[in-house]
Each structure stands twice: as C-alpha cells, then as structure tokens.
Amino acid sequence: MGSITITSGTLRGRRIQTPEGSQTRPLLTRLRKSLADILRPRLSQARLLDLFGGSGAIAFELLSNGAATAVVVELIPKTAGLISLNARSLGVAQAVEVVQGDGIAAIEGLSRKNEAFDIVIVAPPYGLGLQQKAVASLARHPLLKPGGVIIVQREEREPQVAPPDGLAFVRMREYGRTVFDFYAQGAFGVQPLQKA
Length: 196
Prior knowledge:
Number of strands: 9
Mean pLDDT: 89
C-alpha cells in the first residue's frame, strides 16, 4: 500500500494511504494543487461530490482548501473502506460520507434524496467511456446547486464530452496528458473560475 501527501490548505503535509494495484489512479500532486487553485473562489463552505473516489485524494485536497463536506463514491469495497480510514486519520470523518457502489448509479440515488452539490468531480478510470455516461446521467438527474460546476477528468486521447441539454461547457485546462473539462448549468451566470 502506498501513500500520497495533501499538497495545500489546512491539511498540507498530511499523508493518506492509497490502494495497491492499478485499479485506482491517484491524481498527481501538481494536478490536485492546480485543481484546488482553480476552484478556490468556490470552495468556501462548498458541498462536494466525487463520483469515482479512488483514494479520496481529490476530495481531501478540496476539503483542505475550504470545502465543507464531501460525498465520495467508490466501487471497490476495500478502497471505499480506505477512504473512510483516511478521513478518520485526517480528522475530517464528520465532513466525509463514503458511498460504496457504482458512481453512475449513485447519481440517481442521490437525486431521489434531493441532494445538491456545489462541485461534482467526474474522474473515472480512463478508456471506458464513463465520463460521457456520468455527464449524461447528471443532466437527467441534476445535482448541481445554482452556479455549481462539474469537473470531468480525461486522458488527452479521449474525446471531450459533448454537453447534453441543460449543461454548458465552460472551459478546459490541459496538464500534459491529463485534461480537466468544466461544465455548468446553462451558459450564463457561471461563477468565475480562477486562472491556474
């Protein structure tokens, strides 16, 4: 089992455990920091949803930078348990709800419970077309609060998700082979995104 370090914010320098094997892909330190920098104007007291949690590193980085709460969905039971362990070790267990299950299926379940989020992270395993499926489901089952944003992570060779009705493409940030695409409800009234 490996570990990575929270790179910014109140938890900076704290380490979390990462799962063994190739089923999860922790986001590189500089990319997590860049994402936190871009989202910083939105993070104060934000409610976060991470649909493909992995180690929980993205959620913990954003909590470290001001997000209030996070719901983290993870398919693999052992990995979901590791996210809970990491949350306890960081002292943020009360702010983190771990849902063990399929990220796309979780969207409908959260919608039925009238959940709403300021930020939704879609960072699935590459090459499976899960980005398109997740964004389509988010359009059918809106979970965004007004002015909220969806961030989709993909490998540069994967196609950008065409925004379905109800969502607008806002911007793209490229970091080597990793791309972040940003979507929001409608084309207007979108809270500014800080330049990275």
